[in-house]
Amino acid sequence: MKKGKIPTPIWLLAPIAVLAVIVIFAARSESLFLRKLGPEYSYDIEQYSKIDPAMLVYRAVGEPIQTGLQQSRAVAAGFGKLYVVGDSKLAILEEGKKKEIELPREPTCIQIDNDGTLILGLTDHLALADADGVIQRHWNAPAENALMTSIAMDKDNVYAADAVNKLVWRFDRQGLVVNRIGAKETRRNVPGIVVPSPYFDIAMYPDGLLRVVNPGRHWVEAYTPNGDREWHWGKTSVEVDGFSGCCNPVSMVVLSDGNFVTCEKGLIRVKLYDPEGELIGIVAGPEQLGRTEPMRICQSPEQCGQQGFDAAVDAAGRVYVLDMLQNSVRVFEKK
Question: Cβ distance 209 to 223 under 8 Å?
Answer without folding.
Answer: yes
